[in-house]
Write a structure and sequence with these properties.
By secondary structure, this protein is of the alpha/beta class. The chain contains 24 helices and 17 strands. Strands 11-12-13-14-15-16-17 form a 7-stranded parallel β-sheet, with helices on one face. The radius of gyration is 27 Å and the shape is globular. The structure holds zinc ion. The site of zinc ion has 5 residues, from loops. It comes from candidate division WWE3 bacterium CG09_land_8_20_14_0_10_39_24.
């Protein structure tokens, strides 16, 4: 009998074993092999259990022969003898501590041994108490600061448990949505909640379906091939766990009342509370079934009709956070948000000339498929420690020639020659102005020493903004979702400086970045700062990250006039001074 494990579960098992090896100071190659295999299993699109059943574990990079045998045992028997033995003499609490960001195998081992954290279920809570009482800072190798960090990260652990990045949520939910739409009984299907509002971090995957035959739709959903476990299955609702450990909830509604359901469960909570108050003043009460007027409940098939009935404009889901959108909708003054179709080009991309996976030709040909009017290639600066100026000049010349050849024989996209340069920890731009002038435009970013003080980070950002040759500041806060908070900077000063020097802040569409974050975008827009939605693509697939960046722009109340890459080619060239 096959034992079911999600890819994430298998990856976690391997990471635990790798942590055991690390705690026991075993061969580093062994440690890395387990970690690499865990990463690979988490990333692959196929279900690891399916691959095993089809005898295709060899297809997973990094899974060698001995690991295949272990996985074979895992799927057959539900456990692996060798793994159990490896974990045996270690404090079991260390495996829970590993989930806390910033705590690696050695630290987890040290803490759980010293404090005898032997219970996996309580280890994190116990450690939290110890940190609160100040018992960690006294241990060798720890201090006030590390104790504080541990406490912060434990709190984040409980907070992030059921939340995951938008891009991941969409990859998974779009397949469920497509599957649902295969049923002839599904009239409409939409995401709900934070997923529909395009929040950077999403909770569960909730989907609404408009249908006249709920039972058929629920039965169809239950047939979704990636379901691991059905949690509940009723007449109008169902809930299931799918591959990867994600929970999907669907609810159905008659098409005549679908708009009310969609509106109600899209939220946000605060938006709906405000809306209910406003309705109450008109003697109306709102619910997922419709709008109650006296003893009569009015039905709404569309959200547009629902909002219009309340004498206001339709409010796009991305704005429904009670941040002033209701007041403006009542006055008919909502901004017209930017749309993906407004985007005319991508201004941050990388090729094999630096750390990209695809060549110039491959990247440009993909950009052509996307029908971009222009396409900026911005490989990272070459290190001056390993490249002489002569070599750098030669590389620039070669790339310039490549671009000129392309541009002279193609109408779209017009390829622009950019570069992404660093500001060093000691606040310097290493490339000379003469060198920077060889590019069509320059992007500047912080790529190191993220732990500096607010003052130092602000100074470094200002160095980039005030440099007349730099146009765009990339991934301005440096955050990595679930991994690293953005660094602190004096954002008021940064926004003012950008406005004064006509500099652009990037909205980076990499799934783990989404940087600037939406709340910062909103402030930037209010300050009159221009933005640029870029993919920061390091492969042709990454060029598909543009919708992520546009989502953030919309949540930040951007119109197309706020985003430079909504400019036509002619205006863009003018903007760049070309
Ligand atoms: Zn970068």
């Amino acid at each position: 009998m096959l034992h079911k494990f999600t890819n994430k579960q298998v990856a976690n098992i391997l990471r635990e074993i790798s942590a055991c090896y690390e705690a026991k100071e075993e061969n580093p190659f062994k440690i890395r092999a387990y970690n690499n295999a865990a990463d690979a299993i988490e990333k692959i699109d196929s279900d690891i259990g399916d691959l095993w059943a089809e005898n295709r574990l060899e297809d997973v990079p990094g899974v060698g022969e001995s690991l295949r045998e272990h996985l074979n045992e895992l799927f057959r028997t539900g456990k692996v003898k060798h793994f159990e033995e490896t974990k045996k003499n270690l404090p079991q609490g260390m495996f829970e501590l590993l989930k806390i960001s910033g705590i690696g195998a050695k630290t987890a081992f040290k803490l759980s041994s010293f404090f005898h954290l032997d219970n996996k279920d309580t280890a994190a809570a116990q450690l939290k108490k110890l940190a609160e009482k100040g018992k960690i800072k006294g241990l060798p190798g720890f201090g006030e600061e590390s104790e504080h960090k541990i406490l912060q990260n434990i709190e984040k652990l409980t907070h992030n448990e059921t939340r995951f990045p938008l891009h991941t949520a969409k990859e998974i939910s779009s397949k469920v949505l497509a599957f649902l739409k295969e049923s002839p009984y599904v009239f409409r299907a939409n995401y709900l909640g934070s997923l529909r509002r395009e929040s950077a971090m999403v909770g569960d995957i909730d989907i609404a379906v408009a249908t006249e035959n709920s039972k058929e739709v629920i039965n169809h959903f239950a047939q979704y091939p990636k379901i691991i476990k059905i949690i509940s299955k009723g007449n109008i609702k169902a809930s299931a766990v799918i591959t990867g450990g994600f929970q999907v909830d669907i609810m159905t509604q008659n098409p005549a009342s679908y708009g009310s359901l969609l509106q109600h469960f899209t939220g946000s909570k605060l938006h709906n509370i405000h809306l209910r108050k406003l309705a109450l003043d008109k003697g109306l009460s709102l619910s997922e079934y419709g709008i109650k007027k006296g003893s009569q409940t009015l039905k709404f098939s569309s959200e547009e009709d629902f909002y219009h009935f309340l004498d206001m404009q339709y409010i796009p889901p991305e704005l429904r956070e009670d941040l002033g959108e209701i007041e403006l909708a009542v006055k008919n003054k909502l901004p017209k948000l930017i749309e993906l179709s407004n985007i005319k080009g991508d201004l941050q991309t990388h090729t094999t000339m630096s750390d990209g996976e695809n060549s110039f030709a491959e990247m440009v040909s993909k950009a052509k498929e996307l029908k971009y009017e222009y396409f900026g290639i911005t490989d990272h600066q070459w290190s001056t420690a390993t490249h002489t100026t002569e070599v750098i000049n030669r590389l620039i010349k070669a790339r310039r020639l490549e671009i000129e050849q392309y541009n002279s024989s193609h109408t779209i996209p017009r390829v622009l020659f950019g570069i992404e340069i660093n500001v060093s920890a000691d606040n310097r731009v290493v490339y000379s102005d003469n060198l920077l002038r060889k590019f069509d435009y320059v992007i500047g970013a912080i790529h190191s020493s993220f732990g500096q003080t607010k003052e130092q980070i602000t100074k470094r950002l200002l160095t980039l903004i005030e440099n007349p040759l730099i146009k765009i500041i990339a991934h301005p806060t440096g955050r990595l979702l679930l991994e690293r908070e953005g660094y602190e900077a004096d954002w008021d000063i940064i926004f003012q400086a950008c406005k004064k020097h006509n500099k652009v802040l990037e909205i980076n569409g990499q799934p783990s970045r989404l940087d600037l974050p939406d709340s910062f975008v909103r402030e930037a827009v209010k300050s009159g700062v221009l933005l640029s939605t870029n993919t920061d693509a390091h492969s042709i697939n990454d060029l598909g990250f543009m919708p992520n960046a546009v989502s953030v722009a919309r949540r930040g109340w951007c119109g197309k006039e706020d985003v430079i890459n909504a400019l036509s080619l002619g205006k863009m060239l003018k903007f760049l001074g070309r």
